[in-house]
């Protein structure tokens, strides 16, 4: 399936459904395909992406389309990340923010527990999330400047 065919396919699905949650998934596919078309990808890279779109079996008629296409969208994003190191906007911010929360919780329990317990945990969570988000934003900025962001 070519990128143009996939774009048209998801445009048709958006027109067919009235469920907002389904439309969000389809529009995310459309946004990714549009951004891929704007990138200066080689013919081999485009061919590889089109082969992956064929492998995703988009034209099947699943019983629950929202769940099927949401899973397929995740698989497609994973393929782009693993094969071309292309990430969606905010990928590293979300990843590092979550890691910051985990390490901030551990820091709050282990180190700041001599304060009132809930205060130490709260400060650890906030500090971890802030540090993780800052690190994630800088990593997102690097990905954007190198052209590896959708």
Would you write up a description of this structure?
By secondary structure, this protein is mostly helical. The chain folds into 2 domains: 3-84, no CATH class; 91-145. It is 77% helix and 0% strand. It is built from 6 helices and no strands. The chain has helices at residues 3-16, 20-38, 43-55, 65-84, 91-110, 117-145. The two termini are 20 Å apart.
- The helix-and-strand class reads mainly alpha
Strand count, sense and closure of the main sheet? none
Number of strands: 0
What percentage of amino acids are in beta strands?
under 5%
Q: How many H/I helices?
A: 6
List the domain count as a whole number: 2
Radius of gyration: 20 Å
Helix content: over 70%
Shape: elongated
Give unreliable regions as ranges: none
Short description:
The chain has 150 residues and is an all-alpha fold. The chain has helices spanning 3-16, 20-38, 43-55, 65-84, 91-110, 117-145.
Q: What distinguishing features does this structure have?
A:
150 residues; mainly alpha; 2 domains; 6 helices
Describe how the helices and strands are arranged.
Layout: H1 3-16, H2 20-38, H3 43-55, H4 65-84, H5 91-110, H6 117-145
Helix pairs in contact: 1-2, 2-4, 3-4, 5-6
């Amino acid at each position: 399936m070519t990128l143009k065919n996939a774009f048209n396919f998801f445009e048709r699905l958006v027109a067919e459904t009235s469920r907002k949650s389904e439309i969000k998934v389809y529009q995310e596919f459309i946004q990714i395909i549009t951004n891929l078309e704007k990138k200066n990808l080689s013919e081999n890279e485009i061919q590889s992406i089109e082969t992956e779109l064929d492998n995703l079996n988009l034209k099947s008629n699943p019983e629950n389309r929202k769940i099927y296409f949401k899973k397929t969208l995740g698989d497609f994003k994973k393929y782009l990340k693993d094969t071309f190191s292309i990430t969606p906007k905010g990928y590293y911010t979300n990843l590092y923010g979550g890691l910051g929360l985990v390490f901030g919780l551990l820091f709050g329990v282990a180190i700041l527990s001599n304060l009132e317990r809930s205060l130490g945990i709260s400060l650890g969570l906030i500090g971890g999330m802030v540090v993780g988000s800052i690190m994630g934003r800088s990593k997102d900025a690097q990905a954007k400047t190198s052209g590896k962001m959708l």
